[in-house]
Amino acid sequence: MLTINELFHAQLKVVNVGLESFYEAMLDQNTPACHIDWKPPAGGDPRLLEILAKLSR
After folding, report:
1. Strands (E), the chain
2. Is 25 helix (H, G, I), strand (E, B) or coil?
3. Domain range holding 26?
4. Do the beta carbons of residue 54 and residue 35 sit within 8 Å?
């Protein structure tokens, strides 16, 4: 495991979840990154989430 000081000198490796623009900014800076296109279930709508929860029982 790296110490804090070692961490600041290590090359970043980024896993980006959500905002693709952040992923693109990492690539623009030649930082290794992978992007996961994630969105909240049912668009985060509480009513739809409750319906989905009932369907999965």
Report:
1. 14-17, 33-36
2. helix
3. 4-55
4. no
The per-residue pLDDT for range 6-57, each reduced to its tens digit, is 888 888 899 999 899 999 999 999 999 999 999 889 999 999 999 999 998 8
Residue 40: CA count within 13 A, CB half-sphere = 7
Q: What total number of domains does the chain contain?
A: 1
Amino acid identity of 57? R
Amino acid identity of residue 13, one-letter, is: K
Residue 16 has a CB neighbour count (10 Å cut-off) of: 19
Q: Please, which residues have CB within 8 angstroms of residue 23's CB and are 6 or more apart in sequence?
A: 14, 16, 33, 34, 35
